[in-house]
Design a protein that fits this description.
The protein is mostly helical and 143 residues long. The protein has a single domain (3-142), classed as Helix Hairpins. 80% of the residues lie in helices and 0% in strands. Helix 1 packs antiparallel against helix 2 (45-76), helix 2 crosses helix 3 and helix 2 (45-76) runs antiparallel to helix 4 (109-142). The longest helix has 36 residues, at 3-38. The chain is elongated.
Length: 143
């Protein structure tokens, strides 16, 4: 696969993953607002734990879906021989751990690197989301 093709396909998968991530985070804001209303009588740690746990769970679900998308993409392109290696590669690349024990051929290396770019961008978005959520909850804690 040419570098241009790798960048093109990688950008498409990155865009799909990021769109899914954004949709899940936006949906989770709606869910967290409803949970805040349901737990409005609980002014203690239970309410904060439910709200923060909901935000955290949303982030975990979003990242898990993206790892699966990358794994399936790698498998569809025949860049790795089986789903087990594809999931492992996608996970260590997406999280930018990059052990290097499972790598793609030179014809797919730029495409694989796009998984790391996806992870970096969406982990940044997740961090901002959780910091914003904590920012809304902490003033309540100190009032």
């Amino acid at each position: 696969m040419t570098i241009t093709t790798q960048i093109m396909f990688g950008s498409i998968v990155l865009g799909i993953c990021s769109a899914i991530h954004i949709v899940i985070l936006v949906w989770s804001v709606t869910w967290i607002k409803k949970a805040a209303q349901w737990f409005s009588g609980h002014r203690g740690n239970v309410r904060r734990a439910v709200l923060l746990g909901s935000g955290f769970a949303s982030v975990v679900v979003a990242h898990t879906i993206q790892v699966w998308i990358w794994a399936i993409s790698v498998l569809i392109l025949d860049a790795l021989p089986d789903i087990s290696q594809s999931i492992y590669f996608a996970l260590v690349t997406y999280t930018t751990v990059g052990y290097g024990d499972v790598t793609l051929d030179a014809g797919f290396n730029v495409f694989g690197a796009m998984a790391a770019v996806t992870g970096l961008l969406n982990f940044g978005l997740s961090t901002a989301f959780l910091v914003g959520l904590l920012g809304k909850m902490l003033p309540e804690r100190f009032d």
